[in-house]
Amino acid sequence: MSVSPSTWERIAARGGISPRKARTHGLIFIGAGLLIYLLFARAAAIGETSTFVLNFGGAAETAPVPDLVLPTAPTLYALALVCAFLGGWQLARGFRRPNLALGVITGLFIWAFLTWASRGQSFNLTGMLNSALLRAVPIALAALSGVICERCAVINIGIEGMMLTGAFTATLTASLALNLWGWPSWASMPFGLICALVAGAWMGLLLAILAVRFKVNQIIAGTAINILSVGITSFLSARILAHFQQLNNTGTLQPVPIPLLYRIPVIGPVIFEQNLLVYLLYILLVVTHIVLFHTRWGLRTRAVGEHPRAADTLGINVFRVRYVNVTIGGMVAALGGAFLILGSVGRFDELMTAGKGFIGLAAMIFGKWMPFGAFGAALIFGFADALQTKLAILEVPIPSQFLLMAPYLMTIIILAGVVGEAVPPAADGQPYEKQ
Amino acid sequence: MNTWPRIRLEKRSDTPHWLSRVTPGLSVLAALLVIAVIFGLLGVNPWIAYARILTGAFGSLYGLSETVTKAIPLMLAGTGLAVAFRARVYNIGAEGQLLIGAICATGVALFIPGIPDELRLPAMFLAGALGGAVWALVPAVLKARLRIDEVLTSLMTVYIASELVNYLVYGPWKGPSEWGFPYTDKFPLAAQIPRIGMTRIHYPTLILALLAAVLAYILVQRTRWGFEIRVTGENPEAARYAGMNYLRTAILVMALSGALAGIAGVGEVAGIHYRLRYPQGISPGYGFTAIIVAWLARLNPLGVILTSLLIGGLLVGGDAIQLAMGLPSATVYLFNGMILLFVLSGDLFTRYRIRIELPERVSVLVRQEREEVR
Question: Which of A83, A218, A376, B131 could bridge across to A33 with cysteines, CB 3.0–4.6 Å?
């Protein structure tokens, strides 16, 4: 192809990325099309169909949506062609929003993969989206905690540990109230939630004291919090929960459909028929966004994150901003842990967070330190995680260990490939020394 | 007008030598005291527990030999991390690099025929070191080329390495002679690292570990490259002005720490278990514990020799109280986390002077008294 350098520069300038990256993106798009053709389309027999079920027995069942039945082979050929065409377009003209285009290609590729995996079978798409959202919630809360901390320039590697502490505290206190004190579950669960938040606040405060006051290396401080949380929760769980099973049973929150909205076909029950903690996440996202970008506190937080010295000169109490934000960040992380218990499984297992806190940090970076960006990234991770479990059911011939690797591998790939130039707050990780 | 005594922190211009030597020890003691309180609250007699830990780890020849055995991987991985952290390159994935080292060693031990017996072990060490280094290069290159935070990526590689081990021992490498356990077959004799007498001390690895610590010390303190590492860590701006290549330094220290962690993995499979097993069976978090070892040694490779023996002793003692007092295995993490936390906070006293400000009235009285004396 004889495209002059100036053309490449023009294409790249359209999307605001480097020429090499623009070219790589185009090649990735074409490669995706080729892969769909080679891996999936050729394996599909003529006349086979893939069925996607668009309902999952919830309150919306009154108006079921008909199943989506696709002829496998033609769909796959069409998807391969669309990918190749988009790739050609990227190479020749360039997309204005390359990351969005990459997202679309990823979506098409996953669609193709699912069509191939469910050939001759039926696959519950809505059910999977639902499980993707549920798996995304703790990751999104971890990411939100990361946003709140890093916007004022404190790196919080300890989110994983704070989640674990929150999960344990919620389990212990909610079960105590429910099973020993005989509280009704509508009282025991909020009680467990509040206790988890208090525990998270203490952990956040601990990190803040280490990072802000003692000016300790923040990464090592976070690691210390993680190791300590693993130690304390596993120790107490083996010492207490293992002997008293009734202390490890909180029950779970039931979904509460939001009137009217949950009747939207396909996505309605996924988004608007969840438990209250999921709605709490939606609210937190909006509130964090508004506070960060439309209030005085948010402006101060961002100033402290970008240029603490200038902020200090203007009379902002840098230490106070960081103390408050990191403490709140600890509470949000603990909320993520509490969700794992109250909103999902109802019992505590050692090491149950399994890296969700760290994946949340990756989501934060991918989301460019924005609340909704982080949520979007968390959804992708949740989707990968849900996909992994569904594949086992569809009996896709991939060893389960590789499916278990998927979220972590995805994290690296996403961080490496898609992020572009993710720029953290300028003072991120640096302790502030008053002069 | 303050009416109560106030505690104020004042930055020290220089730290007295004795103080920086004493604080880590005092911090560990403080951590042990806090854990004693937790034990007490849970109905475990802390003093009996501590006595058991002490006698378990250092009270008998067997205990001592086990302490040294557990110190070997900690020393290797800790040395690498001490160098990397010096350059402010945060390799948190030593655990994964250790596992990859174990995989590579197993591959050479079991599946590559035609290596002469006397070269089998060297080849395994080499493969393990290379594997660990390459595994560490993933986050290193991502950091160098794309400025992606190495903390997260190196952590993710731990999970991936762990699943890789699982895949191998449950899948293609599962040993036909292992009764269905997730183990590979036993290594042939030529692929087993010799031990001292009846102990489990696989001494060639120990020698490598000691050598690594000493060489790393010389590297950091006495060579040009070590100087670059230190400057990069202490003042990245100055390093850039001096024309030092940050990316090269970052990649090299990552590879070095990965290689040492990989060697630690070789030692575990070829010196202790003689087979690849499920990940937790190979390493109960040595790679993470090595972070504590390195930090406790104040990132001084020679200090790592000492702290790895200390933490190794803690691991052995932890096993002892597990058996004797029915404590869960996670107790060791409790110790590790608490100690790291206190060592971190203890650094405060080396950098700051703590001043207690007396209330106004009292200080006026004190001043008057002084003047009268004069």
Answer: A83
